[in-house]
Specification:
Elements (H helix, E strand, L loop, with lengths): L2 H7 L18 E5 L6 E2 H8 L4 H10 L2 E3 L2 E2 L6 E2 L4 E5 L16 E4 L3 E6 L16 H13 L6 E2 L8 E7 L2 H12 L4 E8 L7 E4 L3 E4 L2 E4 L11 E9 L2 E8 L6 H7 L21 E9 L6 E5 L16
Parallel strand pairs: 10-17
Antiparallel strand pairs: 1-6, 2-5, 3-4, 3-6, 7-8, 8-10, 9-10, 11-16, 11-17, 12-15, 13-14, 15-16, 17-18
Helix pairs in contact: 2-3
């Protein structure tokens, strides 16, 4: 990151908040179809949930209902005794609000596409929302603008709250090579993070394995088994008890950067899951991806500038 760019990131503070978004509490309903006469899906859920028939049908159409672990979009499907039905109320309701912003397409050729993902948007369909995610929105956008639904695949993910570069393949040829590149760790990933403390070192490498317990990821303790994880960190700026870091993960474990920092006493600003101070967003941004192009063989680097106010609006703690 250039000095000018860094200085812009760490400019004067001013009031900044994300637009207020209406959220519904996530609720999940689990049922097993009892023995007896066959029953239709929408009627079955209407009788057992607090939702009316029309709301149930909207939820089915939205991709929020699963039968035996597979999404079911036909409200008139006949259920058999013993089948398991899951309904999850979508995080944002049944509004199809997310769509692709063409100016956020960072790179495009016949084989791959890079997009600057916004924070708050998942990369792929979730069990309760098949529409408001980057993958579904890109398929819709490419289908509308090019007249056909193209081949589309992804091999890496960003957390819902993380912004920045996402790379997707547009052909099977590129997909095979891109998958191998990520699998063999030949893709260099660079992130920016604002942490809620002043690191004691200017740079370090964290190679502690990551494990999961009680539904959360954490660094494995001595003698514990965990998955291999390695992240390089470098301090770019320090300011009033906060620090702007560059993180280069060498492996791709879930929440890897967040866990390595939190377990070191350096939680990311906005990462309340890992003891970070509350903020209007998670201050983690996928800044850059560098790789050999999966088809042409030429070096390729794609960068996504930090969002407006990503760092300049981070609150300086009171002394």
């Amino acid at each position: 990151m250039s000095k000018d760019h860094r200085a812009a990131c760490l400019g004067p503070l001013h009031s900044w908040r994300n637009p207020k978004r209406e959220r519904l509490a996530k609720m999940r309903y689990l049922y097993q179809v009892p023995a007896g006469e066959p029953v239709v899906l929408d009627r079955f859920l209407e009788e057992r949930t607090p939702f009316g028939l029309e709301r149930v049908r909207r939820l089915v159409d939205f991709g929020s209902v699963y039968v035996d672990g597979r999404v079911e979009r036909d409200p008139s499907r006949v259920l058999r005794p013993g089948q398991k039905v899951t309904l999850t109320v979508p995080y944002y309701g049944t509004n199809r609000f997310y769509s692709i912003e063409p100016s956020r397409i960072l790179y495009r050729d016949p084989w791959i596409l890079a997009y600057d993902k916004e924070p708050g948007i998942p990369c792929q369909p979730t069990p309760h929302d098949a529409h408001n995610n980057l993958f579904a929105a890109l398929r819709d956008y490419l289908g509308r603008t090019e007249g056909d639904v193209p081949y589309l695949a992804l091999h890496h993910r960003l957390d819902r709250e993380t912004s920045g570069v996402m790379l997707l393949s547009l052909s099977e040829e590129a997909n095979r090579a891109l998958g191998a590149a990520f699998r063999e760790r030949r893709v260099e990933k660079r992130y920016l993070a604002v942490v809620c403390a002043d690191p004691p070192e200017d740079s370090w490498i964290d190679e502690r394995p990551i494990t999961r317990s009680e539904g959360r990821y954490r660094c494995a303790r001595d003698g514990e088994k965990g998955k291999e994880a390695s992240t390089e960190f470098r301090v770019l700026e320090r300011r009033g008890g906060l620090a702007l870091l560059e993180a280069r993960p060498k492996t791709g474990r879930t929440h890897q950067i967040r866990v390595h920092l939190a377990d070191r006493g350096l939680p990311i600003l906005g990462d309340v899951r890992y003891r970070g101070r509350p903020f209007s967003r998670l201050m983690l941004h996928a800044w850059s991806l560098s790789l050999v192009h999966p088809v042409t063989g030429k070096p390729l680097t794609v960068e996504a500038s930090p969002p407006d106010g990503f760092v300049s609006n981070a609150p300086v703690p009171a002394s």
